[in-house]
Specification:
By secondary structure, the chain is an alpha/beta fold. Helix content is 44%, strand content 22%.
């Protein structure tokens, strides 16, 4: 019988092996945890990109006519994911026109890692108004609806945009069902090509709405078809009212409350107005930020803020009293705070329109949403 190996020789080897295993275990755990973290981060990034939020937790978009300087300010602030170029116009015969199409702007936006949608309107350049005859003709039959949807999809393929933003603003309430069906037809055509669709809707707090514009828009039906449901939560005050804000946060909150009962929150986009208004009696003039700076320099207005946080300017010009309100950066911040506190699950914001804003607004958007 062979004598057993003395413990004095085997024990050190066992201890050394155990120490090696103990050293390997923490290192292996670190590798596993790092791998899991990388997978999780990749998943979140992929989901954000898929949802159109490539640069932050909330999506930031803006309509534009092609303002390059405003685009650059937004990019420099890290506050833009997508633009909608307001160029494509429906015609009553089903054709399309894009008189202001600018391939250079599309290329520039893409180079800035910005998705590009084209906004489709029922606007008539010759009369300078949204024309109800355009939508009436296109919505007249299933065939005319489908033909126009096919024409829009073909235009998108030719010009290689990422999606379409439907902004028909003169549809009559009686055409509500036909309009919903057209948006569904267009969504199907765009989705087949891997493109997205958005729809712009008038603000309301109940169905069907108080006048033709909102009555033509069936929020549930439209929300089911589109990828983005953009609520135009601005234009609250105008020639029809006393001087007041364009977007009181409390009013915006009530509209978004209703929207979340009709449409999946991940599709809802809150509209943010970049423009203001100046009242002289019942006559109003729209204002951009450059106008605010001119009023300050020329008339030294009295400046105040009310519950909306919008900047109010009171001054006299040529003997007449003027009251102007403008959503500058602090006012935009108040609207974003309301959104984050009351509607944290919606997708983000869309701003009308680039070039009219207080430049500091882009930094506010970045700080709050990205």
């Amino acid at each position: 019988m062979t004598a057993p190996e003395p413990q004095t020789r085997t024990e050190p080897r066992r201890r050394r092996a155990e120490r090696r295993r103990r050293r390997r275990t923490p290192a292996l755990l670190v590798i596993i945890l790092a791998g899991l973290a990388a997978v999780a981060i990749a998943f979140l990034i992929a989901r954000a990109v898929d949802e159109g939020r490539p640069h932050g937790p909330y999506f930031i978009g803006a309509w534009t006519f092609g303002d390059r300087s405003s685009l650059q300010r937004a990019v420099d602030a890290g506050a833009i994911d997508e633009v909608s170029v307001d160029w494509l116009q429906s015609r009553a015969d089903g054709s399309l026109d894009a008189p202001k199409y600018d391939a250079g702007f599309v290329s520039l936006a893409r180079k800035q890692d910005c998705r590009v949608f084209v906004t489709l309107t029922d606007y008539d350049e010759t009369t300078h108004r949204f024309d109800p005859a355009i939508s009436a003709a296109i919505l007249a039959s299933p065939g005319s609806r489908r033909r126009h949807a096919a024409a829009v999809a073909a235009w998108c393929r030719e010009h290689d945009v990422d999606g379409v933003d439907v902004d028909w603003e003169a549809v009559k309430g009686a055409q509500r069902d036909g309009y919903s069906k057209f948006v569904h037809d267009l969504a199907e055509a765009l989705h087949r090509d891997g493109r997205k669709i958005a729809v712009d809707v008038y603000p309301k707090t109940r169905e069907p709405g108080g006048w033709d514009g909102p009555r033509a828009q069936d929020w549930k039906a439209l929300g089911q078809a589109v990828d983005q449901f953009r609520v135009m939560t601005y234009n609250f005050s105008g020639s029809w009212s006393a001087p007041g804000p364009q977007s009181p946060p409390e009013w915006m909150n009530r509209i978004l409350d209703f929207a979340e009962t009709q449409v999946a929150p991940r599709k809802i986009v809150m509209g943010v107005g970049f423009y203001g208004r100046d009242w002289r009696g019942s006559t109003t003039t729209d204002l951009v930020w450059a106008d605010v700076e001119r009023i300050r320099a020329a008339y030294k207005p009295r400046e105040t803020r009310g519950p909306s946080a919008e900047l109010a300017l009171t001054y006299r010009r040529e003997g007449a009293r003027h009251t102007a309100l403008f959503p500058d950066a602090p006012a935009i911040d108040a609207k974003l705070r309301m959104m984050l506190e009351q509607h944290p699950h919606i997708r983000g914001v869309y701003c009308w329109i680039m070039g009219q804003e207080n430049p500091r607004t882009w930094h506010v958007l970045h700080t709050r949403l990205h």
